[in-house]
C-alpha cells in the first residue's frame, strides 16, 4: 500500500479500499480458522549432517482457506500477530507439538525424535500468561519438556522486555531455546551474551539464499567457531543442495534443515522417514 502522503482522496481509491477490505476479511476468516478445522501442522526434519538422518523436526503451521487454498505462513502469521489471533494459534501449535511428541515417545520409545521445535512469536513471548500456558499444555499432553524446543527470533527477543526472564523460566522447565533466523535482524552477537539460548539457527540467506556465495560462506564459517566457543549448538537452515551440505560439514556443522533432507511433511510421512534411520 502507498504511504498516506496527505492525499485526502486516498480513502476513495477503490483499489486501496479493496485491499483493506480483503485484509479485514482475511483477518476475520483467520479468527474462525482454528475451530473450522482449517489449521494444520507439518513437520520438517532437522538432520544430523554426518548421517543425514532426522534427529528432530520443526513444526510449521498451515492454513487451508476454503476459497484461497493454502495461505503461506509468511502472510497469515503477520496477520495473526497484528490482530492478536497469534496467541490462540500459538497455543494450538504448541499443544499439537506436545501431543505429537508424546505420541512419538509412545511409538518409538527412547529412540523417538530427540526434539520438536516450535516457533513462538514476539506476542506470545511478551504475554505474561505464556509460561502458565506452556505448563498447562505440558501437563495436559504429558509431553516430556526436554523433547521440546522453542524458536524465537532476534526481533521477538528484543521487543519483549521480559524475554530473557521468560526464556530462563522455559529452560528451567527443561525446554531448549533456539534463536531463529540468526543474522537477519538488527542484533549483534552480543545478544547471545544477554539472552540464554541453546541453539543458534543460521538463516537460510547465508546458506542457500542471496548471501550464500562469498559473504554467506564467511558468516557461516565464523558463526560455527563462535557457537563452538560458547557451547551453543548450530543448525544451518535452508540447505538445498549436496554442495551446500558438504560445505557446512567441512565448516564443522553437525545439524541442518532444508529441502535437500525433506520439505515440511505430515507427521505420518515424517515417521516413515524416521523409522529407517532408527534401524540404520
Ligand atoms: P521459519 O521459522 O524460518 O521456518 C523455516 C521456513 O523455511 C519454512 O517456511 C520452511 O518451509 C522454509 N524452508 C525450509 N527448508 C528450506 C529450504 O531448503 N529452502 C527454502 N527456500 N526454504 C526452506 P514456512 O513453513 O513457509 O514458514 C515461514 C515462516 O512462518 C517461518 O519461518 C516462521 O517464521 C513462520 N511460521 C510458520 N509456522 C509458524 C508457527 O506455528 N508459529 C509461528 N509463530 N510462526 C510460524
Ligand atoms: Ca523457525
Ligand atoms: Ca528460520
Ligand atoms: Ca523466517
Automatic annotation (TrEMBL):
Q: Does the keyword Transmembrane helix apply?
A: yes
Question: Where, if anywhere, are coiled coils annotated?
Answer: none
> Which parts of the sequence belong to the EAL domain?
23-278
Q: Does the keyword Transmembrane helix apply?
A: yes
**UniProt KW keywords:** Membrane, Transmembrane, Transmembrane helix
Designated name of the protein: EAL domain-containing protein
Q: Which organism is it from?
A: Paractinoplanes durhamensis
Segment of the intact protein contained:
470 to 749 of 749
